[in-house]
Amino acid sequence: MLVADIHHVSINVSDTTRALTFYEGILGMAVLPRPDFSFGGAWLDAGNGRQIHLIEGDVPPSLGQHVAFRVDDVDATVARLRAAGVDVSDAKPVGDTTIRQAFAHDPDGNLLEFSQPS
């Protein structure tokens, strides 16, 4: 199987502080370390190794709301998707982490991330 698990779901928010009042304060999710991106947001622990990534602001659709699948080898995933005719980005590191990711769209235009953990 190409996909090993769901890694995270990204949700667009207009105000990170307000969103954290809900996700951290009411739902009880712990805040996780997050790279220094050019936009606001937060990473949260959703349990069982899964995360919620809050993305704040007017984010381009290519970077916004999406589901991320954990894969064991992002380069092999990119090669397999391209061999199947899927337009997929090159794998790139996430900020200053050793996580690598690539992006593609499903047939209905939903943004998908393929994430290889460090």
Report on the structure:
The protein has 118 residues and is an alpha+beta fold. Helices cover 18% and strands 38% of the residues. It contains 2 helices and 8 strands. A hairpin with an 8-residue loop joins strand 2 and strand 3. The longest helix has 11 residues. The protein is globular. The mean pLDDT is 89.
Compact overview of the structure:
The chain has 2 helices and 8 strands; from the N terminus they run E-H-E-E-E-E-H-E-E-E. The chain is an alpha+beta fold and 118 residues long. It is globular.
Average residue-wise pLDDT? 89
Which strand order do you get reading across the main beta sheet?
A: 2-3-4-1-5-8-7-6
| Unreliable residue stretches | none
The radius of gyration is: 14 Å
Structural class: alpha+beta
- Helical content, roughly? 10-25%
Shape: globular
Tally the helices: what do you get?
A: 2
Run of helices and strands = EHEEEEHEEE
Overall strand count: 8
Spatial separation of the terminal alpha carbons:
20 Å
The main β sheet shows up as: 8 strands, mixed
Instruction: Indicate the proportion of strand residues.
Output: 35-45%
List the helices and strands and how they pair.
Layout: E1 5-13, H1 16-26, E2 30-32, E3 41-47, E4 50-56, E5 66-70, H2 74-83, E6 92-93, E7 100-105, E8 111-116
